[in-house]
Amino acid sequence: MKNLKRNFILTLIIFASFMIFSQNMVIKNNFINTNQNQLIVTSAFSKNDNLTATNKSKYKMAIVIDDFGSYDQSGVQTLLNCPCTLTCAVLPNVDYTEQNIKDFSDKGHEIILHMPMQSHVNLPLDWYGPVFISSYDTPEKVYNKLNSCLKQFDNIKGFNIHIGSGVSRNKDLMKVIYNFAKENNLYFLDSRTIMTNATENACKETDSIYLGRDVFLEADKNRSYQGVCYRLYEGAEIAKQKGYSIVIGHVGAEGGENTAKAILDTLPKIKEMGIEIVPLSEIYNDLVKIKTNAS
Ligand SMILES: [Zn+2]
């Protein structure tokens, strides 16, 4: 009888150990992945971290807003009151370049250059502004143009492309852009507006860190308030899956007031989901650390 009781307890212990072990395996399988981008999640958890703990944010989301500086300032004033740190991509050499840089950096937002580059279709030249990178530029010209635009920015962390589908499908030009970023200690954000791998391949071949847009906030045709809210939650879900996410929205005609209001209104819920809104440089620096540790 005694033996029977002992065997029963022993079986219970083995069964309980197996359950705990398999539970851990599920957690590990969810988060350990060979994809470099997903490693950030494993680094966010220490061995004994409880996944259900909600007291501190474990997932990061960067909200990048394009088209600052332009004459169409819709959404700009609303975003100026945003209580989280936005990453503001500002067009060079246009009406409100200086003003928007000053106002948003004074409030602690991150500023990046929104560099106009040529489309693969013919567009009116004034859509690009006074300085843009053409699909036929030599590397030297690309460097000169980027340098001249950067002069308007202080403490800049990175840049992305305004329009640019002609340039971003050209791997050689994209390699020039990644090399420029590297030499100037800047990050480059790929907005992923075209269906080619030219930018990702250029990134690999220059041994750079890849930052790519996960969600466009105004992906719906009518750019509705509800649509932007939905996309913000989609960005938050992606952050929970891979540890971080990058969403891009717009001030002005491409987004404006609807986008700005949706960001402000969804912030409390996104925070509740355990997501921290961070400047894009923070995600970039995390990826740099992971790359350095892996090599
Ligand atoms: Zn743009």
Structure overview:
This protein is α/β, with parallel strands linked by helices and about 300 residues long. The chain has two domains: about 1-30; about 60-295, TIM Barrel, CATH 3.20.20.370. The chain has eleven helices and nine strands. Strands 1, 2, 3, 4, 5, 6, 7, 8 and 9 form a nine-stranded parallel β-sheet that branches. The longest helix has 30 residues, at about 1-30. Bound molecules: zinc ion. The site of zinc ion has 4 residues, from strand 1.
Salient structural properties:
295 residues, TIM Barrel, alpha/beta, 2 domains, binds zinc ion, 11 helices
Strand content: 15-25%
CATH fold group of the largest domain: TIM Barrel
**Total DSSP E strands:** 9
For the sheet with most strands, the description reads:
9 strands, parallel
CA-CA gap between termini: 59 Å
Quickly name the level 1 CATH class of the largest domain.
Alpha Beta
CATH superfamily placement of the largest domain: Glycoside hydrolase/deacetylase
Classification by helices and strands: alpha/beta
The general outline is: globular
Mean pLDDT: 85
Which CATH architecture of the largest domain?
Alpha-Beta Barrel
Helical proportion, percent range: 40-55%
* SSE ordering: HHEHEHEHEHHEHEEHEHEH
Which regions have little confidence, pLDDT < 50, spanning 5+ residues?
A: 8-55
Give Rg in angstroms.
23 Å
